Amino acid sequence: MQVLTAVVALGAMAAAHVVGPAPDPADRPGVPADRPLSAAVDGFAGRAGDFDGDRRDDVAAFTRGEGGDVYVARSTGARFDGIGDLWSDTFAFWSQAPLAGDFDGDGRSDVAAFARGGKPTVTVALSTGRSFGRSRVWTTSFAPNVEIPAVGDVNGDGRDDIVAFRRGSDAVVSVALSTGRSFRPSTPWHGHFATGPSVPAVGDVNGDGRDDVVAFTRGESAAVAVALSTGRTFGRAAWWSGWFAEDRALPGLGDVNGDGRADAVAFARDPEASPEQGAEVTVALSTGRTFRRMPAPWLGSWATGGAVPGIGDFNGDGRDDVAAFTRGGRADIYVALSTGRGFRQTPARWHEYFAAATEIPQPGILW
Ligand SMILES: [Ca+2]
Ligand SMILES: [Ca+2]
Ligand SMILES: [Ca+2]
Ligand SMILES: [Ca+2]
User: Fold this and answer.
1) b/e string for 176-193 if b means 16 or more Cβ within 10 A?
2) How does the average pLDDT of the chain come out, rounded?
C-alpha cells in the first residue's frame, strides 16, 4: 500500500503543472485501459527506436488495419513531444507486426512490418529524421506462418538484422542479415532454441557488439536460456537464470545499468488482479555469463492490467528506462527512469494522448 500511496501522491503533484485533460486520480499506469493481452500464444516485442537520431529513444504508434498510419512522438528527455505527428500513412496494414530498428545503419531508427502467414513479406520504411520514406519490400520470405519476428544487429556491422523464432518442437531460429538496402536470404542460426511457448527476445547480453538470443520459459519453470551470437550463428544454448519472469510476467531486455550488457527485465502481469495489488518490475543484471536477479523489485507497481510496457533509453543517459502505454481512451504514456539501481517514476506523464485504443506502441512488449 505504501507503493500505491506514493504513486497517487506523484499523480497529485503532476496535476499542478501538466497541461492537458483534467487530472483523474486513476491516471496512472495501474489502471487497465483496454482488454488485457492474451497469454503467450502469439505476440511480439520491440525495442525503442531513436527515429530522429538525437540519441534519445522516441515512441511510435501503429494504427494498422486499413489505415496503416504511423505516428511518432520524439523524446525531449523529459517528455514525448508532438501530437498527431504522422510519419507515414501507408505502413503496417491489417495485423502485420511492426518493429523499430536501424536497418540502414545511419543512426536513425527505421520501421519494419512483418506480414507473416502464407505471404511472409517484410516491408521497411527508412527514417529521414522527420518522417518515414516510401515503404519497400526488403524480403518476400521471412517469418512465415506464426513465427515470432524480432530485430537486432546479430553480426555487429551497425545495421539491424531480422530474426524469426519458430518455437514449438521444431524451434529453429532464422536470421536475415541487412545489406542496408534489403535483407539477405533467410538462414538458420540455431536448430533448437525458444521451444514450446517460450517468449524470445534479442539483445547483446555479453556486450561484444553482436545481439544474442534469449528465451524465457515463464510459467512455473521460469528459466532463461541464452545463445550468444558468433557473428555467423548462435552458439550452444546455456541457462543464464533458473528463476526469472515467472507465471505470465512480460519479459524484455535492456541495458538498465548502462554497462554495455543487456539485462533482463520482467513486468509482472496478472489481468485478474486489481490495480491496488500492484505489478512489480524485476531486474536481473547481466554479468556477461549469467543473469543475476536483484533481490528487490526495481519498481513496485507498473503497467498493470492491460497497459503495455516498453523499454528504451528515453533520456539518453545510456541506461535503459521503462515506459507504460495505457492505450484505450486515456492513451497516456508514463516513464520511469533508470538510476542504475532502480526505476524512478517521473512526476508527470510523458504524453497525454498517444497510442490510443488498440494501436500498437513501440517500444512494446505485446504478448
Ligand atoms: Ca530521439
Ligand atoms: Ca547487421
Ligand atoms: Ca553478444
Ligand atoms: Ca535512461
Assistant:
1) bbbeeeebeebeebbeeb
2) 89
Name the grid cell of 118.
502464407
Enumerate residue ranges in the chain where pLDDT < 50: 1-39
Q: What is the Cα–Cα distance from 278 to 305, expressed in whole angstroms?
A: 9
Q: Give the Å distance between the CA of 148 and the centre of ligand 3.
A: 20
Which residues, by Cβ under 5 Å, contact ligand 3, an ion? Answer: 204, 206, 208, 210, 212
Contacts of 255 (CB under 8 A, 6+ apart): 203, 261, 262, 263, 313, 318, 319, 320
Ligand 3 geometric centre to CA of 364 (Å): 22
- The whole-number pLDDT of residue 26 equals 38
Instruction: Tell me the H-state helices in the chain.
Output: 2-15
Answer yes or no: are the C-beta atoms of 99 and 109 closer than 8 Å. no
Cβ < 5 A residues, ion ligand 2: 153, 155, 157, 159, 161
258: left (phi over 0), alpha (psi -120 to 50) or beta: left
